[in-house]
Design a protein that fits this description.
This protein is of the alpha+beta class. The protein has twelve helices and nine strands.
Amino acid sequence: MTTQAPFHPADAYGYAELLSDAERASLLRLRGLLDEHVRPVLAESWDRGEFPPGIEAPLIEARLMDPVEVADTGGQPGALYSGFRTFELARTDASVLTWYNAQAGLFRTTIAYGAAAAHAAELDARIRDFSWKGVFALTEPEHGSDIAGGLATSARRDAGTGKWTIDGAKRWIGGAGQADVMAVFARDVDDGQVKCFVVPVDAEGVELEVIRGKASLRIMQNFDIKLTGVVVDESARLPNINSWTDVAACLRRMRADVAWSAAGAAAGAYEAAVRYVGQREQFGRPLAGFALIQEKLAHMLGNVTASLGMVVRLSQRQAEGIYRDEDSSLAKMHTARTLRETTALAREVVGGNGILVAHDVARFHADAEAIYSYEGTHEINALVVGRSITGLAAFR
């Protein structure tokens, strides 16, 4: 019998072995960048509630969306690679992951799905190297879970000039202050359908304000955005997004990323707990040697392993072209719920020191609350799954 060290200490069943050697090499390079440039500044940045600007350049220059290791083999990174990239980022910090995936996930998916094919390919190259930075602007101050029917931002087309005028407000838009453009979803006043427009953040009539006082995702800068008489050309409209059905198709693809992020954050909390109990002594011996501590660690590892199994299979199915609302909703619902439990257990085993940011678990514990709520609350995702089970819709 032969044994080898796992690619990841929280990957008990070796799901990363499904990746190619080149994909694993790219992820190891990412891990090194995170350990060198990101981890050392996390506690202080979280305490101040500020995004550390020095971490952007190394992660952008790494070209993780088209990694050189994979390109050198003549291949392209697969869906599992994208999932594990999210996992690696999230196990370090959920805010850093949110910043990166605002570009690599939300914005990239919207452009890939919404733009005309030839234009989408051209734009994707600029998205991958961050020469064109964008964010996803859907949620509104008064509309989150009910955004499908409640979206209030309006777009009116001038029949004479062909230009569109957008009025409304968006909320919780992460990374908007670092972006060039926003993918703004607005309801066409003529046909009542939701459409999407690429709007420059410095366009006349756009106002950005950082949301202060957050107890979760403190490093990530989220914004309130007001759009007052913002005028854009017809060329700014993404032609393949013409209804909420099209928006839902984008969200169906994006929700898998959130499930991966929940799994990654749970892994980060678990690892932080293992590190701490291996070093901390009480009653003359390491905490790691106590039965009750080991039971909690086993419980945490079980949660991470189950979550990884779910998101790995979800990504495999999506790579096969199988996209179902209930699949991504089930994964997001389950992984976010067990993330909450895992981070709470991690905080327990670290004891009183668990509320100190320096030991990491406090950060994961707080950030779990944001992951639990965004990209569909537990209840909304449960109802999507329930509709699939029963054939009856419990909400509209």
